[in-house]
Amino acid sequence: MPIDDQRFRIGLVQMTCSTRPEENLHKAVARIRDAAAQGAQIVCLQELFRSQYFCREENHELFNLAESIPGPSTEAIAKAAKDCGVVVIASLFERRAPGLYHNTAAVLDDEGNLAGIYRKMHIPDDPLYYEKFYFTPGDLGFLNFDTRFGRVGVLVCWDQWYPEGARATALLGANVLFYPTAIGWHPQEKSQYGEAQLDAWRTIQRAHAIANGIYVAAVNRVGFEGSPESGLEFWGNSFVADPFGRVIAQASSDKEEILVTECSTAHSEEVRRNWPFFRDRRIDAYAPLLERWRR
Questions:
Q1: Domains of the chain by range and CATH?
Q2: Catalytic residue numbers, as ranges
């Protein structure tokens, strides 16, 4: 029986961010419209696009950047989604309740409705990435969202280093995994470690594509944020990998760009037929993965 092929086009918006949230929101809405004009049907924005990456420091005043979902940003994005007939994935600083905040991706469908949210599961705490100060770990689990154009899985940034998250999300039937991202080089580390760090970031996500026979789309920000001594140079390089792990769309390291590329469900099934990792999984033997450590 021939493979049923569902094709859809995804768009990734790689952009710089200013210190003015409303300016960033306005730019993101304009970029959504640009991506739609280029044929994108599912558009993904970078992590925490509404502001600069504030987790470079621990500052209680920065909690004022948070907002409810639904809220002003989802309302503006929903209008653009409906006007353009596209699905939008928007990463936001969610104020869930007084003193309770999440790093959350909202999915707006092509009619402007909130299809659902995903709350970032893995929260880092590293120099210039002090996310545990701001975010409570997600409590919704790994999710998929059905859209008119395809079934999508959404994870966020630090989630991209965990094969367990990619697998759990892919097992729900997603056609593509989206990773809104904010990652870059420490100024003091770039010359020695920068190339290896970027290669590791790209490699781990290509591995998710291969291991799950699925498209993976990572969208990062660009630009330098912070002081020369304690800032981050976001390395861009947003990309899409196909189910064979081949990079089929790639952005630069230093420019604002919109990537638009086509995904094919038939291609995913063809790859899985030839590399049947799902068939050969030993689910009876994986209980040790639920333990923190085994000697």
A1: 7-290 (3.60.110.10)
A2: 47, 120, 157
